[in-house]
Structures are given as C-alpha cells and as structure tokens.
Amino acid sequence: MKNNDFLQINNLSVSVNDKAVLHNINLKISSQAIHAIMGPNGSGKSSLAYSLMGHPSYTITSGSILLNDFDISTAQVHERAKKGLFLSFQHPCEIPGVSVAAFLKEGFIAITGQHISVADFQKLLTARCEQLLIDPSFIQRSLEGFSGGEKKKLELLQLLLLKPKVAILDEIDSGLDIDALKIVAAGIELACTENSDMTVILITHYQRILNYIVPDYVHVLCDGKIVSSGDAQVAQDLETKGYDGFKNINL
After folding, report:
1. How does pLDDT run across 170-189, given as a tens digit for each residue?
2. What is the pTM of this model?
3. Sheet containing 5-16, strands listed edge to edge, beginning at the edge strand earlier in sequence
4. Which of 94, 113, 131, 200 is deepest in the core (most CB within 10 A)?
C-alpha cells in the first residue's frame, strides 16, 4: 500500500438548498487503500459521496477536492468519472426499456474510450457474471424492478467493468442478508485484486461488512463533521461506544 494522498478533501463545506450539510471536512485518502466512512443516519455520509461525484444539488461553499493533484471541485460529473471516480448508489435509477447489457456497454465505452463490438462485450460481460455468481440472464433484463440484492449486483458489475481509480461505495451493504453480504464483499475483494491501484471509500452504518473487508483507515462522520479517524480498531470501538460516544471528540 502506498502512503501518498491520492484524493485530498480540504476544508470542504457543502450545502443543499442553502442548508449546510458538511462542515470543514478534511480527509487525505491514500492510494491503493480501503477507507471506511462510518456514521449514523443523517450524518452526511451520502452528502459527502454526492459532493465528491459532483451532484448538481450539492453546492461547495468552501474548500476543494483534489484528485491526483488536479482540482475537480468544479468539474462536471462525467469529467470526474473519466478521471477515475466511481460512485455506487444505494438506489440506482430505473430506466424502463433499457437492458442491463446495453446500459453497461454505453458506460464502458464512455469511461474507457474503448470501442467494443456487441459480441465481444457480451463475452466480457458473461465472464464477469460468472465471477460474481450472477445468472447470465440478469444482463438481458430491463433496468427496473430489481430487488435490493440485484441492485448491488449491478453496481458490482460496473465496478469490475469500469476499473475506477477511486470507488465510492455508498452503503453497498444496506439491506443485505448475511449470504448476500458475503457475495458483495467477495465482489469488492475481486475488484480490488483485478484493479490493484484502486482506492476504495466504503460508506456504511455498520461494522459487519468490515468483518469481511478490513479497512486500512476508518473515519467517523457525525453531524456533517469528521469526529474521529484511525485504523480498523475505530470500527470496533464504535461497536462498544456507539456513535454518541464519538460526537464530542475533537480531532
């Protein structure tokens, strides 16, 4: 693991509809590392994810976001994606009439710039499905009506295909039973193995996914502020102290 700070978040404050949701966030995200960001509901975890990706509803009121020393604070979403940012959603948009295969193919071409035939992409996609233990019929379905577990499978397929530099996984463990959680964790580990330069920002409420994916760093976010940072032990401490035990900590 490298020690250089590949993604730097400097004094970042963000508002939505003139309401402040993030306050002076400072994070240095090392390359080739797994960073877990933990916090209770409404703490600002998803707001941070959306701000990093450039969601238009999230206004940066101060601070900056540097990706490999390049300021992406004002970059459009597609520009950030091409520079290597990837965000998995808790609730991906449904697009009736568009198949999973067609959606993934367009995304693959847009991000990689690599033009690929339908037949070759089908082979690639089928191989990825096999790796993730996904029934190949899944990719022929329309982008609608997915269960929670199926939505996670779609996000994992994108992660394997697009090979981002920074993967922001926003509560990818949400709503999963133990068997589905193990499959998702195995998929993330596979993506890290195949894309060894990738940095992972794993956003979660709970420590349980960290039993399968051990983070290098854990950051606790409460009330829009980072209140603690450390190694994997921080997640263990949360289990005993709860989030209330961290809210009054000053870094």
Report:
1. 988 888 888 888 889 999 99
2. 0.91
3. 19-30, 5-16, 59-67, 70-71
4. 200
Q: How far apart are the first and last CA of the chain?
A: 25
In sequence order, what DSSP letters do the residues of 148-203 get, joined into one string? HHHHHHHHHHHHHHH--SEEEEESTTTT--HHHHHHHHHHHHHHHHHSTT-EEEEE
DSSP structure string for 24-52: EEEEEEETT-EEEEE--TTSSHHHHHHHH
Q: Which residue type does 49 have?
A: A
- Two structure tokens written together for 106: 């367009």
Closest to 170 (Cα-Cα) out of 7, 12, 46, 13: 46
DSSP-derived secondary structure letter, 206: -
The CA–CA distances, whole Å, from 143 to 76, 99, 102, 103, 199 equal 24, 6, 10, 8, 28
Place of tokens 């295909």: 161
Residue whose tokens read 């890290």:
192
pLDDT on residue 1 = 39
Tokens for 2? Answer: 């490298």
As a whole number, the mean pLDDT across the chain is 90
**What is the spatial distance between Cα 80 and Cα 87, in angstroms, rounded to a whole number?**
10
What contacts 113, CB < 8 A, 6 or more positions away? none
Q: Is 101 helix (H, G, I), strand (E, B) or coil?
A: helix
What phi, psi does 200 have (nearest 5°)? Answer: -115, 130
Which CA distances in Å does 54 have to 5, 51, 61, 150?
A: 20, 5, 13, 26
On whether the CB atoms of residues 151 and 94 are closer than 8 A, the answer is no
**Cβ contact 117:107 at 8 Å:** no
